[in-house]
Specification:
about 120 residues, about 65% helix, 3 strands, three-stranded antiparallel beta sheet, alpha+beta
């Protein structure tokens, strides 16, 4: 098998894989789109105020109600933002501590009398 034939074979395989990935994506997308459409129509037919499968609704300026497969949860904007802020502050603090420790180790390494940049010790 020549080089050109190998390249053609590889291109066909990549094209086949791309097609399969696209088809899987389309199938999953259409599946969920169908579920949402049927859920919307069923809810409107039965007189429900909202869909049952998935959705969200803002209650007031501070609260959002999410629902998924009949379960509901209320989320408060301020609590979420405070949680995100505390997480980011914690990550920043941990990064600062790590940088401080690295600087300290590097300083100790370079101030060590036994350290020789060429990798050999004096006798």
């Amino acid at each position: 098998m020549g080089r050109l034939e190998q390249k053609i074979k590889i291109k066909k395989q990549k094209k086949s894989i791309r097609r399969k990935k696209l088809l899987v994506f389309l199938m999953v997308f259409l599946f969920f789109q169908g579920i949402v459409l049927v859920d919307h129509e069923y809810s409107s037919m039965m007189g429900y105020e909202r869909e049952m499968f998935i959705g969200c609704k803002r209650i007031n300026s501070e609260t959002i109600k999410f629902y998924f497969v009949g379960k509901e949860i209320d989320v408060h904007d301020k609590e979420v933002m405070e949680s995100i802020q505390s997480t980011s502050d914690s990550a920043i603090q941990k990064t600062r501590v790590l940088i401080y420790k690295l600087k300290r180790k590097i300083r100790l390494l370079f101030t060590n009398e036994d350290f020789n940049p060429r990798g050999t010790r004096q006798i």
